[in-house]
Structure formats: C-alpha cells, structure tokens
Amino acid sequence: xxxxxxxxxxxxxxxxxxxxxxxxxxxxxxxxxxxxxxxxxxxxxxxxxxxxxxxxxxxxxxxxxxxxxxxxxxxxxxxxxxxxxxxxxxxxxxxxxxxxxxxxxxxxxxxxxxxxxxxxxxxxxxxx
Length: 128
Description:
Strand order of the largest sheet: 2-1-3-5
Distance between the termini: 12 Å
Largest sheet: 4 strands, parallel
Radius of gyration: 14 Å
C-alpha cells in the first residue's frame, strides 16, 4: 500500500475532504483534485498511453481528475449503479474513489494487476 507522507498541506486537504468538515462545492472539489495530483506523482514511470484512470461515480470524479491531469493519461468513468464494468485495454488501470467504506463496489471489479486510489479507506478492508 502506498500512503502519502503527511505534510501540512496534505493534512489540510484531507481535513477539507472529510465529511464532517462542513466544506462543499468548488473548495471541496479542488481539494480532491489537488490530492489526486499529489498522489499521481507517485505513479512515476507509468506510460500515459498505456494508463487509464477510472473514476468511480460519484465520489471519485474530482480525485480521479487530479490524477488524470497530472499523468496525462486516458480517463473514463464507471457508475456501478447503472452499468457493468469493462476493464480498459491499457496495461495500467487505476480505480479511483474518494472513500472506500465496505469495499464492496471496488472488490466487484478490481483485478490483481489494477491499482486503487482513494482518500479514505476503512482500515478493515483487505484487497487481493
């Protein structure tokens, strides 16, 4: 598991993205995008032409956009309530959601060679 080093800025952004922060709208979206951009720097060496960021709707969209803009790769959305997941044809697939509570949605689609990015995850979730 990759975890970002908690700098003052990252702690500020995480505080904004918490559900009890009272912050919504553009400020919340920008915090998710900035966290995504910072996290994407950890994916150094990924070929943009062979990488797809998959935003889990709705919560993952802004976090995923931050990763996407930083990597300059392919982008798609996935709405688990209204569509079946089709794995992108790229070597690297990054599933993105802002919060993973039970892990049920992610576990239904993740494969061993995929990456998962999130802001908050239930500490009791264990992936493949």
